Amino acid sequence: MACNNIEEAPLQNVDVENYIALLVKGEFTAIDLPDFTEADIPKLLNYRNKTEKITIFPRNMISSYMNKECSLGMYVLWTIESIRAVAIDSEYLIGRFPSQNPVVKERSGGIDLVPEEDAHPIVAQAYLDWWQNNQDQSFEAFKETDPLLDTGLIWH
Question: Is 18 in contact with 28 (CB distance < 8 Å)?
């Protein structure tokens, strides 16, 4: 048992389908994101547009912002960003968290978060395009390309 009675799930053994099912049921009790790889991205992208709200999910403990709920799709997109961040050894990586929260803000430097209902469709399309437009290359060749670069958004 880890602190706060959160049980550490075996992250190496969870597959995408089980991860999604556990998130939906509110039973994913690990304290970090799974150690997925680029091979898992296509399966994760299948859930990118899911708008159902989840309330129990791993959170970056260094953040002072506490989002009480998140759409499943937005959380899955943040999980994909985790795969990319780990692959490039991002300076923003904390554990496997690619940023402080599964929310976005304007890239121009403001601190105000973009409402999820506005941001989610943009982020979902950006990650799908990033993946589909690079399928003729190895992940190594495009992993450094930020899917959100042309959206004006950045993960918070």
Answer: no
Instruction: Identify the helix (H) or strand (E) that includes residue 146.
Output: none
* Model confidence pLDDT, tens digit, residues 84-97: 999 999 998 999 99
Query: Distance between the two ends of the chain, CA-based, in angstroms?
Result: 29
Burial-class residue 88 by CB neighbours within 10 Å (0-12, 13-18, 19+).
middle
Asked if residues 98 and 82 have their Cβ atoms less than 8 Å apart, the reply is yes
pTM of this prediction? 0.90
CA 95, CA 83: separation in Å to the nearest integer?
A: 12
The radius of gyration computed from the CA coordinates of the chain, to the nearest angstrom, equals: 15
Who's near 116: CB < 8 A, 6+ residues apart? 70, 71, 74, 103
pLDDT, residue 67, reads: 77
Q: Which of 131, 116, 98 is nearest to 52 (CA)?
A: 116
SS3 of 97, please?
Answer: strand
